[in-house]
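Good morning N.,

You mentioned wanting to compare the apo and holo forms, so I went ahead and generated the holo version with adenosine-5'-triphosphate. This is what I fed in:
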Amino acid sequence: MASVALDAVSKIYPNGYLAVEHLDLQVADGEFLVLLGPSGCGKSTVLRMIAGLEEVTRGTVFLNGRPANDLMPSQRDIAMVFQNGALYPHFSVRENLAFPLQIAKDDHEAIRGKVVELSRALGIDQTLDRKPATLSGGQRQRVAMGRAIIRQPSVFLMDEPLSSLDTALRTELRLEIGSMTRELGITTLYVTHDQVEALTLADRIAVLRDGVLEDLGTPGQIYDDPATAFTAGFLGTTQLNLVVAQVQRCADGVLLDLGNQRLLVPWADPRARPLLGHFQQQVMVGIRVDDLVPTDDPRPGMFLDGRVVTLEYQGSSWTALVDAGITTAEFVPRPRPRPRRRSGGFFRRPTLEDAAPAQEHVGIHRRSHLMARMPSGMKWQRSTPVRLAVDPSRLLFFGADGRRVDPVIR
Ligand SMILES: Nc1ncnc2c1ncn2[C@@H]1O[C@H](COP(=O)(O)OP(=O)(O)OP(=O)(O)O)[C@@H](O)[C@H]1O
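and this is what came out, ligand included:
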């Protein structure tokens, strides 16, 4: 068994920066969990605390059910691969791969056998006698991964291992990482800010934002049923339209009043009742770009009218910015704690109480444009009036705090 658990883990760096806040996370034996989030959200900090490279300020890291905060990195049976997997430059590939086993004082013949077997699995068996400087970036990263897993660690931590590679190599190595870790059944935590890597590799994805766990679920749950507006926006290949609406009601269902236009969520939609809990309040409505396409449908409440402002050719379709005269929503980041000074002028060791209270997603409003998908076969021009179909069952509804108004099932 090789499980990892974080119980209310926080990290405050000595300068007072709260990088991770009260994080609860359980990674099951053999699971592949991806930590996903924008740059600076604390992903690497989480990984480094699990590896024992960074002290835990508060809370407990458990490895195989045992508290591990006080264990040295070497006592944790964990292997880690970084963005630029560092190799010993004066060692050959063979010596680099063999090194962890030599340290563990494995039998000489067994080491030879394992090195050859693993190098074949990683497609680097032709490079065994070369020095790292003569390898391509992809080959070097394969050697780094091989060196990390040759000891068969119980936990494998990967920190953006593909980010320095070109697109073709990333795809190739991503597929190999997926099949290799699953074949070996190694519990893996993988850090990335690339949603494609997260969706393709993960058993489950943990979305981090400003050091706080924003969402946790399978790739399908995170993509189709995001718990927050931030997750919905981060996971879309194109920007998510977020519009501000006031909740009203009529005989047919809940009316979403966008100012100059209205959308209808019929009573038959299970989200109509939870929406009504926000009666006469503002909610944010998430509309994916691919769900906003031209239509002739005249049914009221099922479309938005606007005018094309800008067009971008995408090959199979156009992406258009459409001015529908409605208000879109954006988020401002949470306020971050500042380092504080003591009267003596030294930094004092900060505590969680020093951190400013986390302010939930604050919506700021601006008048802006909707992004829509237009079929490439038609002639679109700037200023063309356009009617965009809106399927209410495809809409996502978020309260002012950015959380879904309807229950999210995980
Ligand atoms: N030693 C440190 N002292 C102070 N602040 C730090 C330290 N290390 C990291 N930070 C800050 O903590 C925050 C989280 O950093 P971390 O490296 O964990 O983020 P990340 O999500 O992995 O980002 P990236 O994807 O850019 O690597 C960042 O704002 C970073 O500047």
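The CA atoms of residues 132 and 402 lie 48 Å apart.

Happy to go through it together on a call whenever suits you.

Best,
F.
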